[in-house]
Amino acid sequence: MKNLILFIAVTLIAAIPAYAGPVKIAAALPDIGSIASYIGGDKVEVFSIGKNNSNPHAVEVIPSYMIKVSRAAIYLKVGLALDQWSDAIIDGSRNSRLLTVDCSNRITPLQKPAGKVDASMGDIHPDGNPHYWLDPANGIIIANNVTAALKKADPSNSQYYDKNYERFKEEAAKHISDWKSRLAKISGQKVITYHSSWIYFTTAFNLAIAGTVEPLPGIPPTAKHLAELVEIIKRDAISILLQESYFPDDAPKFLARQTGIKIFKFSPSCADVKPDSYFRHFDEIVAQIEGR
Fold this sequence. Notes:
Number of helices: 10
Radius of gyration: 20 Å
Order of helices and strands: HEHEHEHEHHEHEHEHEH
Helix content: 40-55%
Strand order of the largest sheet: 2-1-3-4
Largest sheet: 4 strands, parallel
CATH class of the largest domain: Alpha Beta
CATH topology of the largest domain: Rossmann fold
Number of strands: 8
């Protein structure tokens, strides 16, 4: 089946004309795509492979993605082993001109395991937690990586990209200051999360993860584990549960019934690749938590 998909993709790609016009950018996730749209402005055309309402660990590789990437000049990967599916798309695109960029470059990963990693530890990433874009300060690092890629792919517009990068840094700094101020009243509080997506967000805003609904990353909760969480929530008077939008509601609703904890259901990714989407996503998260 995989060979058939690849054959179809390659056949269709062969008929595609050479790249021209705006710099076409394929982003693994909309967050990276949004940042690329900000830096690239009217010089780029950006699309995202992953969607905000689906699990970024498991994106289905289909021929249409390969065809779109075959027309792109740049592919922006998440890295840290999150989007290994990107490699299959890139390979299937047969795009020898494609500049592939690992946007985790110069990111300091959190939760990097020590020693050997095996299946008994769940869906753990040996290079560290890959959800780094949920610390808005890391958005500046992503923007720097994107800027370098654009200057390499389109050197004639280097000054334009540099100017937009400086503007992004300034806007990010203002937003971060505002978001931290608005969440200062819950600084230091403990929270529960569903998956391990939120460690960068909680670290950025000085929150502590007291437990996760999944006993191990990617492993569904057991009755025993949920009972233990109930005790933790009651003991520490925890009032916030952060849940990814694509995970089932049963366990969080059980915890809410047992303890009164409030569920905040967010996608870890922004809605689309518009230039303001990355910042707007944090605005929405902060506003809901602030108004709880």
